[in-house]
């Protein structure tokens, strides 16, 4: 009788590439010897763990997946089953020509597994669980504010479309959306039609979003006093141009400030470094890189516009820049200076010293 030897991968790394979808995961498993197996399964970390335990017992399980719609839930669920995981940016996965023109789930998962085995993958920053909800609150506020602005624009467009003439007291757009303005729109505005259902519906949406925005702003104020942010929050809002909302957005998005080695790396994260093309002795710089946090960059530009009116050092620098470039280019330079100040303040744990040339 032939004795069958049990499989044992003890001491061996098992590399797992996962193409994550809502209902299914396409998985490619690669051993140190190069043996590749692929399968499709339900989107469950437990199902993957049971498969690995059966077919690759006692191995060191190392996985990677392309961070997307599932966020960090896949990472934390795999970690719960002892499977080390590396969420990666889609653009950072090495891709050959064949893989770019023949894109399938199986090819994608295999590409991830091979890159993981070769040590070519660089993981993205993984925030702590307790910070995730705070960050989502700040992102929701940005979304609500954008939607509120959209509904306000629709109301204005509807008034213009119906030939509504603004009274003298509302000719200045700064007076719009005050209590007096809303009273006028609700009570005195008449559209071309006898009814004004469309306007009333839009006004109700504006009121709904304003209430939601007020509620979430109060929540943000409460979060700013939380022990997780208390000292860092007080330090960051001492920087000119940085208020409560921008400060909390920075703290919840950045997480661990010490993950940035230098000012350029931090500026790159914010999307404040230009693209660069170098060949031989010729080097050219283009527009701001598309790689970067899409929420923080615009917020910091707004902060820079405020900062040049509050800090003499930044005001002087802005004036010098404007002598040799357009104002919109100069304000980007000031935003970069502001990002340097943010990095220094958060790393040092000290408050900002006004008019100091950092």
Automatic annotation (TrEMBL):
Transposase IS110-like N-terminal domain ranges (all copies): 16-159
Gene Ontology biological process: DNA transposition
UniProt GO MF annotations: DNA binding; transposase activity
Residues in the signal sequence: none
InterPro entries the record matches: Transp_IS110-like_N (IPR002525), Transpos_IS110 (IPR047650), Transposase_20 (IPR003346)
Protein name: IS110 family transposase
Transposase IS116/IS110/IS902 C-terminal domain ranges (all copies): 234-318
Pfam families: DEDD_Tnp_IS110, Transposase_20
């Amino acid at each position: 009788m032939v004795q069958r030897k049990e499989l044992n991968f003890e001491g061996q790394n098992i590399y797992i590439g996962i193409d994550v979808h809502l209902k299914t995961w396409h998985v490619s498993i690669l051993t140190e010897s190069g043996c590749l197996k692929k399968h499709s399964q339900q989107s469950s970390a437990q199902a993957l763990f049971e498969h690995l335990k059966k077919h690759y017992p006692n191995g060191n399980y190392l996985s990677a997946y392309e961070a997307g719609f599932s966020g960090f839930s896949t990472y934390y669920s795999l970690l719960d089953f002892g499977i080390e995981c590396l969420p990666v940016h889609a653009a950072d996965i090495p891709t050959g020509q064949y893989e770019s023109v023949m894109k399938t789930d199986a090819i994608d998962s295999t590409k991830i597994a091979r890159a993981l085995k070769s040590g070519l993958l660089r993981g993205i920053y993984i925030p702590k669980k307790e910070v995730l909800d705070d960050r989502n609150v700040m992102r929701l506020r940005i979304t609500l504010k954008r939607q509120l602005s959209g509904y306000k624009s629709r109301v204005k467009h509807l008034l213009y479309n119906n030939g509504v003439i603004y009274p003298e007291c509302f000719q200045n757009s700064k007076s719009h959306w005050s209590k007096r303005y809303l009273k006028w729109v609700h009570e005195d505005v008449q559209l071309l039609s006898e009814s004004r259902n469309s306007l009333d519906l839009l006004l109700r949406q504006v009121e709904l979003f304003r209430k939601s925005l007020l509620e979430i702003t109060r929540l943000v104020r409460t979060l700013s006093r939380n022990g997780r942010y208390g000292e860092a929050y007080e330090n960051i809002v001492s920087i000119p141009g940085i208020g409560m909302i921008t400060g909390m957005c920075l703290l919840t998005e950045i997480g661990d400030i010490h993950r940035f080695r230098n000012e350029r790396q931090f500026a790159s994260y914010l999307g404040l470094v230009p693209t660069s093309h170098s060949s031989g002795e010729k080097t050219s710089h283009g527009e701001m890189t598309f790689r970067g946090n899409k929420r923080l960059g615009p917020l910091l530009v707004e902060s820079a516009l405020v900062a040049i009116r509050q800090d003499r050092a930044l005001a002087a620098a802005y004036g010098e820049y404007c002598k040799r470039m357009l104002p919109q280019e100069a304000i980007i330079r000031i935003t970069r200076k502001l990002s340097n100040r943010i990095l220094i303040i958060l790393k040092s744990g000290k408050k900002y010293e006004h008019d100091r040339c950092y």
